[in-house]
Design goal:
The chain is 10% helix and 37% strand. It is mainly β. It has one domain. The radius of gyration is 24 Å and the shape is elongated.
């Protein structure tokens, strides 16, 4: 038994069911690894027979967030020195709820082995590292121009390739197993406004006016 095999034999088996609660393990499209990809959560905009534009302009906001989520990365040849330096114990994945936990989460790494995948034994077990973040995330808010249609939100995390969309307010974000998002809905990083359909921006009035209304003439100073 070589050193690599000996290290892997001491690792606990990856609890696949636990890490597949919100996304299946699959081969990565960008590297020869097995990873978990969260399932996208999307909400189709409501179909309104006769749209009613209630606002001349609508607000767009961008928020930055910390996303806490177990990111699984399995490779056929794990780093033996990194594995050997760890205490090979099974531990419950953390479930942080406050920003104060971010420093602890950043240092959290769990190692496992993957001996069976997609119902078949692997030729040799793969080594898996699980990290929980914090991963960078961006949340966008798009205010509806129509008071019949709810506002739209979206969360995206590039590292996790996670996409979550929802309607309503910030507290209506769908709940996913193993996911915690740390952000402040009252502190957007960026706020802009755009004209609603049927309106255009008039520099002279510094506002959005209906397409049928001429922009006021500029008054020389």
């Amino acid at each position: 038994m070589n050193k690599h095999t000996d290290l892997l034999s001491r690792l606990p088996e990856l609890p696949i069911e636990l890490f597949e609660l919100s996304g299946k393990l699959d081969y990565s499209q960008n590297a020869p690894v097995i990873t978990n990809r969260p399932q996208a959560v999307t909400v189709k905009p409501q179909a309104i027979a006769t749209p009613r534009i209630s606002l001349a302009s609508h607000e767009l906001r961008t928020y930055y967030a910390w996303v806490l989520y177990p990111h699984v990365m399995c490779t056929p040849f794990p780093d033996p020195e990194a594995v050997a330096a760890l205490r090979l114990e099974t531990a419950k994945p953390p479930s942080p709820r406050h920003a104060a936990d971010l420093a602890v989460i950043a240092d959290t790494r769990h190692f496992y082995k993957l001996s069976r995948f997609r119902g078949q034994d692997l030729a040799t077990p793969w080594g898996c590292e699980v990290r929980y973040g914090p991963w960078f995330g961006k949340i966008t808010y798009n205010q509806s121009c129509d008071d019949q249609v709810p506002d739209r939100w979206a969360l995206f995390s590039p590292v996790l390739t996670m996409q979550i969309e929802w309607e309503g307010g910030p507290d209506d974000m769908p709940s996913l197993p193993n996911l915690t998002v740390v952000w402040n809905a009252g502190q957007p990083a960026e706020v802009t406004r755009q004209c609603c359909p049927g309106h255009r921006w008039c520099p002279s009035s510094q506002s959005c006016l209906r397409d049928s209304i001429d922009c006021p003439a500029l008054i020389p100073q």
